[in-house]
Design goal:
This protein is of the alpha+beta class and 131 residues long. The longest helix is centred in the first third of the chain and has 12 residues. 31% of the residues lie in helices and 14% in strands. The relative contact order is 0.16. The protein is globular, with a radius of gyration of 20 Å. Helix 2 packs across helix 4. Strands 1-2-3-4 form a four-stranded mixed β-sheet, with helices on one face. It contains four helices and four strands; from the N terminus they run ααβββαβα. It has a single domain, classed as Trna Endonuclease, Chain: A, domain 1 (3-Layer(aba) Sandwich).
């Protein structure tokens, strides 16, 4: 169909898709402890996917965790938000964003807000693992 491809391209440009004149999306800022938390959970056999928005991590277990006494049963998925432990609660970037608060209110499952590796492990696997 003549002109169809050009019409589609024009429509996409009008919606803002693929327009080179738009500024690039900024990369999300990663809190300092996130890499350590991801590495520690993966070493314990927990699946971790970095999702970034609206919260930082998706964590799951494909099989019952032998370390945690069933704290994270097979197939259970939870979400984790990592905050910078070096920020005080008075600093605006240490708190949840409005979008994060709205998402948490809608999410039917468990969400953990953590700052350290020990907190992340304790939240996902329970206290038994750290003893």
């Amino acid at each position: 169909m003549p002109g169809h491809r050009e019409d589609r391209a024009r429509g996409l440009r009008e919606l803002g898709a693929g327009v080179s004149g738009l500024p690039p999306r900024r990369a999300a800022r990663v809190d300092k402890s996130q890499t350590d938390i991801v590495d520690a959970l993966r070493k314990l056999g927990i699946g971790v996917e970095i999702i970034g928005k609206p919260l930082d991590l998706l964590v799951w277990s494909r099989a019952a965790c032998p370390h945690c006494g069933g704290a994270l049963p097979a197939g259970k998925t939870e979400i984790m938000e990592v905050k910078n432990p070096e920020r005080t609660s008075e600093q605006p970037n240490s708190r949840l964003t409005k979008d994060q608060v709205k998402f948490i209110a809608r999410w039917p499952g468990k969400i953990h807000v953590v700052e350290t590796v020990d907190e992340a492990i304790r939240e996902v696997l329970g206290d038994r693992v750290l003893r």
